[in-house]
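Hello forum,

I keep getting stuck at the same step: I have a sequence, I want structure tokens, and every attempt I make locally crashes halfway through. Rather than fight my setup again tonight, could one of you with a working pipeline run this one for me? It's a single chain of 185 residues.
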Amino acid sequence: MTAAGTAGSDGGGAPVDGEAGGVSGAPAGAGDPLASTPGAHPSAGPPPGPPPSRTGLTAVIGAAAGAAASWLERAEEVALVAALALATVVPLVDAIGRPLGGFHIPGSALYVQQLTLWLAFVGGLAATRRGTHLTLSTSQLFAEGSLARRAARLLAFAAAAAVVAVLAYASANLVASNRQQGNVL
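Reply #2:
Ran it on my machine without issues. Output:
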């Protein structure tokens, strides 16, 4: 506290008029014209109010879309958990069943391969929906909005597009070769 805000000439006394934080006898906030108006201080912002409500058809459509999205998210999570559980249990049944009596699941290796594929696809969907999908993070090394960051992001997107193009080409060749053989997949 400065000498101007205290009683006495030595600056060691209490605030004037018994006001905490008063300056030269004025109450706290007396010099601020906005201090007396509640909610009028620039940092206070507008008072919170209820969110705007939707009425009629838009409210029904919004509620239905929200319920459908929630149901789809739940179904996605259930599919992920079920596929992971099956991909874990099927090899365990084979590993424990064969020595204890020769019990095994015919074609279990193919089932586990298919479950792993489904885990990758559905897990990728879930990660994309949540925004936690793996990305190349080299662009994070550069300042936000810089030319180097934009170039790094462009390079990362180009690499991802090239990988997708190669996989699509290989997939088309695989389908074409299987079609020539006449085997049912």
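Residues 57-97 form the longest helix (41 residues). If your local run keeps crashing, start a new thread with the error log.
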